């Protein structure tokens, strides 16, 4: 999807994701996929909500922090 970073399950049952992309469009598509209720139900979740989005930087031509997307433990 053009998104790099990581995802991990938190002890309280929430999921934390840190990601980056070259384009805002890719990030929005990624978020839409996460929030898609039909995809959530197919994976066994009753509902998914995205909260606490924090934009760390929108610096043009910034060096990427990640060159992968990984599941952290």
Bin the strand percentage: 15-25%
Count of DSSP H/I helices: 2
Q: How far is it from the N-terminal to the C-terminal residue, by CA?
A: 22 Å
Helix content: 10-25%
Encode the helix/strand succession as letters. Answer: EEHHE
CA gyration radius, whole angstroms: 13 Å
In the predicted model, the low-confidence regions spanning at least 5 consecutive residues are none
Overall geometry comes to: globular
Find the structural class using helix and strand composition. Answer: alpha+beta
Q: What composes the largest sheet?
A: 3 strands, mixed
Q: Averaged pLDDT, please?
A: 82
Strand order of the largest sheet: 2-1-3
Number of strands: 3
Report on this model:
With 73 residues, this protein is of the alpha+beta class. The chain has 2 helices and 3 strands; from the N terminus they run ββααβ. It has helices at residues 24-35, 37-42, and strands at residues 3-9, 15-21, 69-71. A 3-stranded mixed β-sheet has the order 2-1-3, covered by helices on one side. The model has no long low-confidence stretch (mean pLDDT 82).
Summed up:
This protein is an alpha+beta fold and about 70 residues long. The chain has helices spanning about 25-35, 35-40, and strands at about 5-10, 15-20, 70. The longest helix has 12 residues, at about 25-35.
């Amino acid at each position: 999807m053009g998104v790099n970073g990581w995802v991990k399950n938190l002890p309280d049952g929430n999921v934390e994701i840190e990601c980056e992309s070259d384009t805002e469009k890719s990030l929005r598509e990624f978020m839409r996929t996460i929030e898609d209720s039909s995809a959530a139900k197919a994976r066994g979740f009753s509902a998914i909500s995205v909260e606490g989005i924090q934009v760390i930087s929108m610096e043009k031509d910034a060096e990427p922090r990640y060159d992968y997307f990984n599941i952290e433990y």
